[in-house]
Amino acid sequence: MFSTAIIVFREVLEAALVVAVVLAATQGLARRSRWIVGGIAAGLLGSLLVASLTQEISMAFAGVGQELFNAAILLTAVAMLAWHNIWMSRHASQLIAHLRQVGSHVSSGQLPIYFLATAVGLAVLREGSEVVLFTQGLAAGGSESLPMLWGAIVGLGAGLVLGALIYFGLVRIPTRHLFTVTGWLILLLAAGMAASAAGYLAQAGWLPVQPPLWNSSDLLSQHSVPGEVLHVLVGYQDRPTAIQLSFYLTTLVVIAVGMSLSRQRAPSINRQNASIH
């Protein structure tokens, strides 16, 4: 029961943190619940599909299909989050000034909230599929079904509660600062995903396997609760390699430059509002 609870808690927490940041970033936007819930539902359905194809995925590409699958999901989510942040840099001030009119922007397709819904769905898909894989491993090792079920319930509840607490903490931030805070969180979240994708590509043999640059696991283990939270929110890794660090920094720089260029090309009304705020 304890092993299942820990596994489910970790995976649910990672998905819940992504959902919490996205919900906070879309605070006040019309139809956001429909898109986010749709993304979560699509992710859960995708997890069930992955569960039914676990054997085929794992054996694909000479036995590294699961690693490549995870890397593809992470890199796709990075692209979705990057585009959202660059778009928001151009329009954030306008959204703040005209928040009550945002519904029309969403319905006309100007606001790429579907990009965030896709990122949410991919996060749920990845974490859900990992829950399936890990619990299948525990079952294969002889764990009994009923204790595993209770462990899954406890882990699910704990992960959702902690994710909800972080969401309610974010939405207490004043609106004029909310887009800035969540924009930085999404930027760091995307960089962390890119670093994790590099790790999976190395496991698959598509990138060189390197020794870690440092080991801070004694100071803060990546598998502890604080380590998990920092891993999702800012990309913390206790044993990063040079390639993972380069993926992290490259993603940070590329998105930050894109945000800066987009902000410079923003309509004059946005810059005027930005100067006010």
TrEMBL record:
The keyword Ribonucleoprotein does not apply. Pfam families: FTR1. Keywords: Membrane, Transmembrane, Transmembrane helix. The chain crosses the membrane at residues 37-62, 68-88, 109-128, 148-171, 178-202, 242-261. It is found in: Membrane. The keyword Membrane applies. It comes from the Bacteria. InterPro entries: FTR1/Fip1/EfeU (IPR004923). It is a multi-pass membrane protein. Belongs to the oxidase-dependent Fe transporter (OFeT) (TC 9.A.10.1) family. This is FTR1 family protein. It comes from Guyparkeria halophila. The lineage of its organism: Bacteria, Pseudomonadati, Pseudomonadota, Gammaproteobacteria, Chromatiales.
